[in-house]
Amino acid sequence: MKLAGLTKFAAVAGIALLAASGATASFAADPMGVDDGTQLTLWTRAATQARADQLIQAYNASHKNHVTATYVPTDDYQTKIGAAAAANGLPDLFSADVVFMPNWTSAGLFTDITDRINNMPGIDKVAQAGIDVATWDGKKYGMPFIADLSVWMWNKKLFKQAGLDPEKGPASLEEFAADARAVAKLGNGVYGTFWGGNCGGCEVFTWFPIAWADGQDILNADGTQSLANNDEWKSIFKIFRDMAADGTALMPDTKTEAGPTWTSYFPKGIIGVMPMPATQISGLVTDQLADADIGVTPIAGVKGGQSTFIGGDDIGVSRDSKKLEAAWNFITWVQSDEAQVEVVAKNGNVLTRTDLADNKYITDPRVKLFNSIGAKGKTPLAKNFGATFNDPQGPWVALMQDVVFGDGESKLDAANQAMNESLAP
Q1: What is the pTM of this model?
Q2: How many CB atoms are located within 10 Å of the residue 225 CB?
């Protein structure tokens, strides 16, 4: 499917349909927006800069329109968006971490682009999770922009030394723990596993898929209640608690890691198996970790299954923009074959188009896995997600510290109630 190749056909078909029906309603000349030399402004968080810049430069080089990007320090991004919204000074386009989209769509910061999304040629090939998380009260406000996925990675060299099959990663959380314990027995500064135990977003990204793979969840359908005290989550917490308690996990680092360096441990070559972002694979090779020793497998449930957290950023047109059609042209181009293959895939990144996983640039089977597992992934939706799960002082981090590193299950019901109070609209 070539989105760009469908543009003229779709426009002509639409005009013909109007003529046949005698309708006089206005009709956009091109469902892909306009490319007429419009100057567009775009804001995104600094964490996405490398990948966003690749897309923006390619768009500017091939279009009359021109996008000028501002990369805001990630920790300051929400504050800057809030101040701009209060002053009615939002840029034409801005992106948001997918978990924050419900908060900003419900606050009315984006323009409703439901009709444009619904009528976009090839929309069925775009990752649906990125559209779902940008939908509020039945209206669609955004599309996928920068995609990332969570996976498990294992060190094949350490697996072999531990007597494990170096070509076989864990296919369940129980196998994950067993493999980690086998590697931990090597000792001499080698550990079975590691995770960011004081980082809410880290475990959102890498623990939620465990429950999803088992057909379970951590939130009710509208994101207003926590299910973290059900039997599924009790099993998940116990497995991680036991790995922390018996020294399988690198301690105390696993308990204290708040996020900034959580992915830095695997490249040191001292961790057997751990959850990781898919996009990290291109920068993992060090003197201690050869590329050939990096194994990748989907996150699995307690007993099996597969899933992933579809993370990254969505993008939409701000409510303050007067340049909707030109801004929409950029958004649609991001989903085109040209952008997804010649920019995203060429640079070894995760696609937002599920039909393009097999292309000339993706020859590494690990990267092919990234672009296929997305079909089994999810993105959670809750208006108060950030305050509940990402806030370092929020109830999710407190729950992890108490239940995984503290008194265990005895505090789970109280911790879950605190999450319910935070999630309540």
Answers
A1: 0.85
A2: 16
